[in-house]
Design brief:
Radius of gyration: 31 Å
Shape: elongated
Number of strands: 9
Oligomer: single chain
Distance between the termini: 39 Å
Helix content: 55-70%
Number of helices: 23
Largest sheet: 6 strands, mixed
Strand order of the largest sheet: 4-3-5-2-1-6
Length: about 675
């Protein structure tokens, strides 16, 4: 006998009317946003790994019988790193293959530059950058195969084997600042395995973003499965009372939700594919992307589509537990939805376990990830309990009807209210902490200084005299001193050399570094940027991801709040009709809807963000550093714009509220 599930599901979907269609379209939109956001973050994670792999060839890998010498150096211009790879073919050895991005091994005197560096060389005066490289009539071009980003600044210079730039002194190690930024070895190819210091931490930071955004996407997908839940419950409860079995009820709901979820997830996936060129222009780390780096592949694309579809289906089916068990109770709308104190006990127990587990230190990355997911799960369980109590407290002290109605809704449906803001609550702490953090090497004392390393103290005294002459010729006002061997707090870190204290800002520092290049026999002249590069790169990446995660969380929460607000209007039209018949003004109902989101958003999301900022500021204070002002401004702007977007999304359903309550007598029948 043919099952009636599919025909009946199709019939009910068609006959659900305009409001049923609106709920389905809202669910499709929610699924599309969730799939799109998750694909973008996964693309950033995978693309970051691909970019890091493209930089590994620049760090020389020692070979037993090398055919060439490779030296890595790093210079800075306008606070941006420029990676310089010097290559020299050893005489009497086999020919060395071409490095990635070049058609042949560079000859002595040849200079190849990335397209972005070529533009910068033409834009800046020669005394700020070009004079640091050998004089050539024209520059060669490094292809995309040798670059991590179209915006990356990279130069490959052909040298003579006796050139000081590829000598043993160029191996780095003169100061601890050289780690990851300077290296030298005899090589026979370019199969290095150590990524550049400027891309090595990108994937870990992007993975953090994926973890932080996973919960908001789950929330949005769950909300999509619950859109139109009240209308669906009433309809299916009637079928259950008419004789439909629980299995048939669940099957009908699963088929409908899976179809809606798959349509939305596929729409989001197609939007991701169509917007790949635009997404590639968004800078992260060393710059924008090559489009191919952001392609996640068919496997990941399919996995995300299936995951979103399954989440929506499970969410929709889980709402029918009461329909299957007590259809009469659903038909009478008997659902108190209270939370229990056990949620608080579980949350405290999980926090205690995490504290004990992490107290010993030396945790592996997967252990940290597991603890983070455990914390998120506990917070997810704890959140509705907090919203429930918050609603009761607000209701007790409410002085206006709109506030009282909002508080009642928070207590009646704490899970629904929590789902709207949960993603922001969880992402807010990370964004608040990392955006204002300035942990790492404190380089404030190195500002406007340029250092040159010399072989010994005698060479340093001679170099100081030459430095004054070179800086005077370049038009740079500076005070030149010789570094003391017992002073480990200066830019030389106790290494012999000279330090120039420059007046005139960034351009003067770049000009001074260029002017002092002839004095540097191995490590190029360096400034504050070089000294703090290793630490600031990692912290900057995490801060970037935290702000981006908060922004995307706001985008997801905005979609969730807007869609949920519209669906709630449709689901609660009978309640709204009764309130209108009782004389409640429309503006009071509208204010109650807004406050229903504003109260938990301000208290919970705002509270966790403030907690993160406070914790970071205390940690900064302990290490003697100040708050990252730029990060604080970015966080403030993101929070303000995100909150305004959420309120606008909620207000967008105001015309729908006006329409469904236009005839309250008919609506509340």
């Amino acid at each position: 006998m043919r099952s009636p599930v599919l025909p009946l599901t199709w019939h009910l979907a068609k006959s659900s009317g305009r409001r049923g269609l609106q709920s389905q379209l809202l669910a499709v939109g929610a699924a599309a946003v969730g799939a799109f956001v998750m694909l973008v973050m996964i693309a950033a994670m995978l693309g970051s790994g691909a970019r890091a792999d493209r930089t590994a060839w620049r760090t020389p890998e020692p070979a037993g019988h090398g055919t060439a010498v490779q030296a890595l150096a790093t210079i800075f211009v306008r606070h941006e790193p420029v990676t310089v790879v010097s290559l020299a073919q050893l005489p009497g050895r086999a020919a060395t293959p071409a490095p990635p991005g070049l058609s042949s091994f560079p000859k002595q005197g040849e200079v190849y530059v990335s397209p972005a560096l070529a533009d910068l060389l033409h834009k800046l005066p020669a005394k700020q950058l070009a004079d640091r490289f050998p004089k050539v009539t024209s520059y060669g071009t490094i292809g995309a195969a040798g670059l991590a980003s179209p915006d990356e600044l990279v130069a490959v210079v052909g040298r003579a084997p006796a050139d000081s730039a590829v000598s043993r002194a160029a191996d780095g190690g003169a100061t601890w600042f050289d780690i990851g930024q300077a290296a030298r070895a005899e090589i026979s190819g370019f199969s290095g395995s150590r990524a550049s210091v400027f891309t090595d931490s990108d994937r870990a930071a992007a993975t953090l973003g994926v973890v932080l955004l996973a919960m908001p996407v789950v929330v949005l997908s769950s909300a999509a499965g619950r859109l139109g839940a009240a209308r669906r419950e009433q309809r299916l409860a009637a079928l259950r009372l008419a004789g439909a079995t629980p299995r048939q009820i669940l099957a009908m709901t699963a088929v409908e939700a899976a179809a809606v979820g798959a349509a939305g997830a596929l729409t989001g996936a197609l939007a991701y594919v169509a917007l790949l060129p635009a997404l590639a222009q968004i800078p992260y780390g060393v710059g924008s992307w090559y489009t191919g780096q952001l392609w996640v592949g068919a496997a990941w694309l399919t996995a995300v589509v299936l995951a979103v579809t399954v989440l929506i289906t499970v969410s929709a089916v889980s709402m029918l537990r009461q329909v299957a068990i007590s259809p009469l109770g659903v038909a009478q709308q008997a659902d108190p939805r209270r939370t229990r104190l056990i949620r608080l006990a579980v949350f405290v127990a999980v926090l205690g376990y995490i504290w004990t587990k992490s107290g010993g230190g030396q945790l592996r990355n997967r252990d940290l990830l597991a603890l983070l997911l455990l914390f998120y799960g506990a917070f997810w369980l704890f959140g509705p309990w907090v919203v429930d109590r918050l609603g009761r407290v607000v209701g007790r002290f409410a002085r206006r009807p709109a506030t009282l109605l909002a508080a009642r809704r928070l207590s009646d449906d704490p899970r629904g209210s929590w789902r709207t803001v949960s993603g922001l609550v969880l992402a807010g702490f990370a964004a608040g902490f990392f955006s204002v953090s300035t942990l790492g090497t404190d380089t404030a004392q190195y500002q406007d200084r340029v250092a040159v390393v010399t072989a010994d103290a005698g060479a340093a005294r001679h170099a100081a005299t030459e430095a004054r002459t070179l800086l005077h010729r370049a038009g740079v006002t500076a005070t030149v001193t010789v570094g003391r061997s017992d002073d480990y707090d200066n830019l030389l870190g106790g290494t012999p050399g000279v330090i120039a204290r420059v007046s005139g800002g960034t351009q003067a520092v770049d000009t001074a570094a260029t002017a002092l290049t002839p004095l540097a026999k191995s490590t190029p002249p360096y400034s504050r940027d070089y000294a703090g590069a290793r630490d600031s790169t990692a912290t900057d990446r995490i801060a970037e991801v935290s702000i981006a995660t908060l922004a995307l969380s706001f985008a997801v929460a905005t979609a969730s709040a807007g869609l949920t607000a519209a669906a709630n209007v449709l689901d609660r039209r009978r309640v709204y009709g009764l309130l209108r018949l009782a004389g409640t003004p429309l503006r009071v109902l509208d204010r109650a809807r807004v406050r229903e989101t504003v109260v938990p958003l301000v208290v919970l999301a705002g509270g966790t963000t403030a907690m993160g900022m406070y914790g970071s500021s205390r940690l900064n204070q302990a290490f003697g550093t100040t708050i990252n002002t730029t990060g604080l401004l970015e966080l403030t702007a993101c929070t303000v714009l995100g909150a305004l977007a959420m309120f606008a999304a909620i207000s967008g359903s105001r015309p729908l509220l006006r329409r469904v309550t236009a005839d309250p007598a008919q609506t509340a029948d």
